[in-house]
């Protein structure tokens, strides 16, 4: 996508960046990035799209230019994303989500009209990741919470990226404790089978 010749519109709550123009052939795309990151991470992807493709890249609540929220529960985040979709005038988009954005894309599609869902690198069953978070809950809730985030990002292969992509991943991020605790609340409060581990 030639980003020098696109109509870009940035709007408010949650923040979204709208590219391209609507047409009757290609459904619009809705892009949701992963935890702590923001819509800038879709830049390399946007650069590869055909010129004029209608795309809405959204900053999730609490990320980028979007305001913080009192709830980061998946249904509440999906409702916030729908406000951005409505403000952008999108009709039944294809929702593309990366990492936790993949989960949110699926939750969004369960409650709103979409053309399809593309889930990148996000299993819908928490399995070992949920167990890892629960084993490290005390660390995650304490002043050294970034130690856990550093362990997680160390396994993402960031060093194998191109220098520009590596710089983007390392600088366009906001690893705040309230985001981890809010977006991972369900994983921290439920066992793998869905039962609250504290209710024994």
Automatic annotation (TrEMBL):
<dbReference type="InterPro" id="IPR050266">
    <property type="entry name" value="AB_hydrolase_sf"/>
</dbReference>
<dbReference type="Pfam" id="PF00561">
    <property type="entry name" value="Abhydrolase_1"/>
</dbReference>
<dbReference type="InterPro" id="IPR029058">
    <property type="entry name" value="AB_hydrolase_fold"/>
</dbReference>
<feature type="domain" description="AB hydrolase-1">
    <location>
        <begin position="27"/>
        <end position="135"/>
    </location>
</feature>
<dbReference type="InterPro" id="IPR000073">
    <property type="entry name" value="AB_hydrolase_1"/>
</dbReference>
<protein>
    <recommendedName>
        <fullName>AB hydrolase-1 domain-containing protein</fullName>
    </recommendedName>
</protein>
């Amino acid at each position: 996508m030639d980003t020098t010749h696109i109509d870009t519109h940035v709007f408010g709550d949650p923040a979204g960046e709208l590219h391209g123009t609507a047409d009757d052939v290609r459904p619009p795309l809705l892009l949701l990035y992963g935890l702590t990151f923001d819509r800038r991470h879709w830049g390399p992807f946007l650069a590869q799209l055909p010129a004029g493709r209608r795309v809405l890249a959204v900053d999730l609540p609490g990320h980028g230019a979007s305001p913080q929220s009192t709830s980061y529960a998946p249904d509440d985040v999906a409702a916030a994303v729908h406000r951005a979709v409505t403000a952008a005038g999108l009709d039944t988009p294809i929702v593309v989500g990366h990492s936790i954005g993949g989960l949110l894309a699926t939750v969004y599609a369960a409650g709103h009209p979409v053309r399809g869902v593309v889930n990148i690198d996000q299993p819908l069953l928490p399995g070992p990741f949920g167990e890892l978070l629960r084993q490290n809950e005390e660390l995650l809730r304490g002043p050294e919470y970034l130690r856990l985030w550093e362990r997680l990002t160390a396994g993402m292969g960031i060093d194998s990226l191109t220098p520009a992509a590596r710089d983007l991943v390392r600088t366009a991020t906001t690893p705040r404790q309230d985001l981890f605790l809010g977006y991972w609340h369900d994983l921290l409060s439920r066992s793998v089978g869905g039962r609250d581990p504290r209710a024994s």
